[in-house]
Design goal:
Blueprint (H helix, E strand, L loop, with lengths): L20 E5 L2 E5 L3 H17 L27 E3 L2 E7 L16 E7 L1 H17 L5 H18 L10 H21 L2 H8 E4 L2 E5 L27 H4 L7 H6 L9 H9 L17 E5 L14 E5 H32 L3 E4 L2 E4 L17
Antiparallel strand pairs: 1-2, 3-4, 4-5, 6-7, 8-9, 10-11
Helix pairs in contact: 2-3, 2-4, 4-5
Bound molecules: zinc ion (ZN).
Length: about 375
């Protein structure tokens, strides 16, 4: 596949041709090219070559996908997974867009994030450790969790995991699990919090042992490992009028007529950053106050349970919160339902419980036949 010298099926003599990029690690590889036909031809060539050595390219493990436009992908999904990472390009305005080496605005951003599968596996692993330590001391649980958190977060420390909120999400999911762990031991969440969470260096939510504040044993946080795959992408995102300049804060924002007191205080506390996505707030961002532990899950209306989030980040978190709340309501509903059915004689008919007095009795059915 030469440059301009000779003519091939995909390129005319004298025109420039970019050779496809291939990135391989062990038996996993990616081929990148702007022309779909070239990628398709590569797939054929590789299949033929593999067949020659008695191997095959498994169709279910091969995807032809567009990095940006889902409509151009075989399965309608943009981007691809590679080595536990998901690589995808996202539409972006001129302030956040990537530029090419000539400085032209490309209109999209490349984000490299933990793949959905990798995130799920990690969440499940943390869950298994917590279950295993159902009745161990807190220190034993932290000792087992920390290396997993450190390892996973370090692996993604050069990705955009922080920027897309994946690290905060992992911290939050872990928190919900630990909360259940603590509740199980203390009978209720409030006592659980008092016993197992501590306020250390201004952070009110540190899962830590209480054997002396100076050397208490603390759970690591995923967010502590945050960075970005291309630090230059977020140059604009890192500059903020709210970036924690104390003089600016105390002299102006605290008494700014258009800034409600509560928001100003929270902004100062958060150093102008959204804890969900890790980005600094910008002038044009819509900010909302969030209850870290939702009120429906008995979260309190006090400063240490409040945070300021982007509206879109708040939406994301609320969706997760609602899932938790529903889980709780659902359990209650099931209990009521089973108590209700216990009072009656009933039997299963077509997977639906039926009152014996009203339903067709088993004895009314002809031999071996089911009611449909
Ligand atoms: Zn945010």
């Amino acid at each position: 596949m030469s440059g301009t010298g000779k003519e091939t099926w995909f390129h005319k003599k004298g025109t420039h041709f970019n050779p496809p990029n291939i990135i391989r690690y062990a038996d996993d590889f990616v081929i990148l090219h702007e022309n779909k036909a070239v990628v398709q031809r590569c797939r054929e060539i590789i299949s033929e070559w593999l067949a020659g050595i008695g191997l095959e390219l498994k169709p279910e493990k091969t995807r032809l996908t567009h990095t940006f436009n889902p409509e151009l992908s075989e399965d309608g999904k943009a981007g691809f997974d590679f080595l536990g990472h998901h690589i995808q390009q996202h539409p972006a305005g001129k302030y956040r867009s990537n530029t090419n080496p000539q400085g032209t605005i490309l209109g999209f951003n490349t984000l490299i994030t933990p793949s959905a599968k990798a995130s799920k596996v990690h969440t499940e692993e943390l869950g298994r450790i917590i279950t295993k330590h159902r009745s161990s001391p807190q220190a034993a649980l932290i000792k087992d969790l920390n290396p997993i958190i450190r390892g996973w977060s370090s692996f993604y420390s050069n990705s955009d995991a922080q920027g897309v909120g994946e690290l905060s999400k992992q911290d939050y999911l872990l928190y919900l699990k630990l909360r259940r762990w603590a509740k199980r031991r203390c009978g209720n969440s409030k006592d659980g919090h008092v016993k197992y969470w501590d306020s250390i260096n201004g952070n009110n939510w540190v899962f830590a042992t209480r054997e002396g504040k100076a050397n208490s044993f603390r759970l690591l946080s995923h967010s502590g490992y945050g960075s970005s795959s291309t630090s230059y992408v977020k140059v604009k995102g890192d500059k903020s009028p709210y970036d924690g300049d104390l003089i600016y804060w105390s002299s102006r924002l605290g008494t700014h007529p258009q800034m409600p007191n509560r928001k100003a205080k929270l902004l100062k506390q958060q150093k102008g950053r959204c804890p969900w996505c890790g980005l600094s707030f910008q002038d044009w961002d819509v900010l909302e106050v969030d209850h870290i532990i939702p009120k429906a899950l008995s979260g309190l209306d006090e400063y240490k349970n409040l945070q300021l989030l982007h509206r879109h980040c708040h939406d994301e978190k609320t969706a997760l919160d609602l899932k938790e709340v529903r889980k709780k309501d659902h359990t209650k509903f099931q209990e009521l339902l089973s108590r209700f059915w216990e009072k009656f004689n009933w039997e299963w008919v077509n997977d639906i419980p039926n009152f014996i007095s009203r339903a067709v009795r088993k004895s009314d059915m002809t031999n071996g036949q089911h009611i449909e």
